[in-house]
Write a structure and sequence with these properties.
Blueprint: H1 2-9, H2 12-22, H3 24-38, H4 48-57, H5 61-68, H6 76-88, H7 92-118, H8 120-132, H9 134-139, H10 146-168, H11 177-192, H12 198-212, H13 216-233, H14 237-245, H15 247-250, H16 255-259, H17 263-274, H18 289-309, H19 314-336, H20 351-363, H21 369-392, H22 399-409, E1 414-419, H23 423-432, E2 437-442, H24 455-459, H25 462-481, E3 486-490, H26 496-504, E4 507-511, E5 518-520, E6 525-534
């Protein structure tokens, strides 16, 4: 009380100086987090999913909703990116900076939760673990919604823990449950409009809030907030129904990964990615091996100890209940129905909880402060060890490299045909570098959803594929009649044979001399840059 009275007597500048002094360690962690995320921010080319995000963000609202009906995510992130690009442009660093901002926001909210409901050491440790977390760094540098998802999850966790503290008169508890409930409703709704998988986390938070809201004064605002969230999400329900119907198509790429392991192995993958790594195998940045087991076991041990040591704390109880529900239920759903839980990706809404509980577990260890600090530093050092190959990998995949080849050989009026997974990136770099080509896709329908591609589904409509191939052959005939050429980004999908046969009758398909065959590391698809030129007419018979 005496400190609070003294603070009130300070000038605004004095209060600011005192605030920075009291939170000096956090600002050191924050500056370190910025440095880790700025490295290579604009140095790597956009890969498929990032270019697709830019494609969607460029759409008007109506077109965005129509295209998202073919996808699996809601519109909030793309709307944010749309206005962000209006202010800062569409360069690699610019479009990734939005995710960097959300990632830093996650650190700030974790620190706030730790300070208010745990302790200052827990707050600093949680922020440090998040600052160095390989996946936090990765998604803080990716033009996708996962950084926003983690930030909103941390915000929703704050308000949920606030409800638990208010209802039990714990430290930092006294206050109005109404404001916390309103905060839950707003952040929960924003999460639902960020990613469909957020449903599990939002539901778990409301269940936990109702469980801890033991009296009517606290329970009624939570129920009203939950009702408002449901009503406000209903406008998206019709689009969501269409998305669910196409979920198998959109996530077709993930099915082999899911089916290759039992559920408990996917759980271990998540625990490992929440610690110091490694990256999930489909990011192709580090092989798991024993490092995965070490990260998962160490984090699990610290989590269990944190839960045991803080079993009387409403904040620990709330985090434990939310984590159990939002971790276990989607895994079971994915096992019984459809795989939607992607370790190291869609589970990012869980990472703030696990990092906070890990920090609480470390600080609950008995012994010298030096030992606890050493454990945090060990996590940070192992995270850096995981990040070194990531920083050393100068391209996420070869998308920018093969588009540089296109730029080198393209002339005004040429025709560029993108196939397979090359559509979104070819569109992005053709616009960014103002490559003077007419861009077409094969199949033609890929132009409306360039971010995903199901070759098996496309192969089921051979007549449409043949018609598309003939249409593109006609486009190339018109271009070559004007003295121009075609450029084909060829991928080894079986359906592309239909296009090749349609073109080879009148055109020559040649690898560009001196160029390399590229390989998309993240998607795993080789790409050949082919020059398409009109065949010389056969000489007349004597």
């Amino acid at each position: 009380m005496r400190e609070a009275i003294q603070d009130l007597k300070l000038s605004p500048i004095g209060r600011a100086v005192l605030f920075f002094k009291q939170n000096a360690l956090f600002f050191v962690v924050l500056l370190t987090a910025i440095a880790l995320r700025v490295i290579t921010l604009g140095g790597k080319g956009l890969w498929l999913d990032e270019a697709y995000s830019v494609h969607l963000a460029r759409q008007g609202f109506g077109d965005l909703i129509r295209q998202l009906s073919l996808e699996s995510t809601p519109p909030l992130y793309y709307l944010c990116l749309h206005f962000w690009m209006d202010l800062f442009g569409s360069g690699e660093a610019a479009v990734r900076a939005l995710s960097l901002l959300f990632s830093l926001g996650t650190l700030a909210v974790l620190y706030a939760i730790g300070r208010r409901f745990f302790s200052r050491p827990v707050a600093v440790a949680a922020a440090a673990l998040a600052a160095f977390s390989p996946l936090q760094v990765y998604y803080g540098q990716e033009t996708r919604m996962y950084s926003l998802l983690a930030f909103l999850a941390a915000c929703l966790l704050y308000f949920t823990v606030r409800i638990a503290a208010v209802s039990t008169d714990a430290p930092a508890g006294p206050g109005s449950p109404r404001r916390a409930a309103i905060g839950m409703g707003i952040t929960g709704l924003l999460m639902l409009y960020t990613h469909t998988v957020a449903l599990w986390f939002v539901a778990a938070c409301f269940i936990a809030a109702l469980y801890f809201a033991r009296d009517r004064k606290a329970r009624v605002p939570v129920l009203l907030s939950m009702s408002g969230t449901i009503l406000a999400f209903l406008p998206w329900a019709l689009v969501l129904i269409q998305q669910v119907a196409r979920q198998a198509t959109v996530l077709q790429w993930f099915v082999p990964f899911w089916e290759s392991k039992p559920v408990w192995r996917h759980a271990i993958d998540s625990l490992s990615s929440f610690s110091f790594g490694p990256f999930p195998p489909y990011l192709s940045l580090k092989s798991p091996g024993d490092f995965l087991i070490m990260g998962a076991v160490l984090l699990a041990a610290i989590l269990v100890w944190g839960l045991v040591a803080g079993r009387r704390s409403p904040a620990v109880k709330a985090c434990g209940l939310i984590g159990l529900l939002a971790f276990g239920v989607p895994l079971v759903y994915s096992r019984l129905f459809q795989p939607i839980y992607i370790p190291g990706r869609t589970d990012q809404y869980l990472q703030p909880i696990f990092l906070l509980l890990a920090a609480a577990g470390i600080m609950a260890l008995s012994g010298q402060r030096l030992i606890r600090t050493g454990i945090v530093l060990l996590f940070c050092a192992l995270s850096i060890w995981t990040l070194i190959p990531y920083y050393g990998n100068f391209e996420k995949d070869s998308s920018r490299a093969y588009m540089e080849e296109v730029r080198d050989i393209a002339a005004a009026g040429d025709t560029l045909i993108a196939t397979g997974y090359t559509v979104a990136t070819s569109e992005y770099y053709a616009l960014k570098w103002k490559i003077p080509v007419a861009l077409f896709t094969y199949p033609l329908a890929l132009a409306s959803h360039p971010g995903f591609f199901n070759a098996a589904e496309e192969a089921g409509r051979p007549n449409d594929l043949a018609r598309d191939a003939n249409t593109l052959a006609a486009k190339l005939t018109d271009a070559t009649a004007r003295g121009n050429k075609g450029i084909l980004l060829a991928t080894p999908h079986e359906i592309n044979e239909i296009l090749r046969r349609a073109l080879e009758y009148d055109f020559r398909l040649d690898d560009v001399p001196g160029r390399q065959n590229r390989h998309e590391a993240l998607v795993g698809t080789p790409v050949r840059v082919l020059s398409v030129r009109k065949r010389a007419p056969n000489p007349p018979r004597p």
